[in-house]
Amino acid sequence: MVVGTSSLLHAGYHHPATRPWQSERAITKSALIYPIFISDNPDDKYEIKSMPEQYRWGVNRLEEFLSPLVKKGLRSVMLFGVVKPESKDPTASIADTEKNPVIQAIGIIKYKFPSLHIGCDVCLCDYTSHGHCGVLFEDGTINNPESVKRLVELAVAYAKAGADCVAPSDMMDGRMKAIKEGLLAANLSHRVSLMAYSAKFASGMYGPFRDACDSAPTFGDRRCYQLPPNARGLARRALARDANEGADFLMVKPALPYLDIIRDAKEDFPNHPIACYQVSGEYSMIWRSAEAGVLDLKRMVFETLESMLRAGATVILTYYTPRMLEWLDELDQ
Ligand SMILES: NCc1[nH]cc(CCC(=O)O)c1CC(=O)O
Ligand SMILES: [Zn+2]
Ligand SMILES: [Zn+2]
Question: Which of 19, 101, 229, 249 could form a disulfide with 40 if both were Cys (CB 3.0 to 4.6 A apart)?
Answer without folding.
Answer: 101
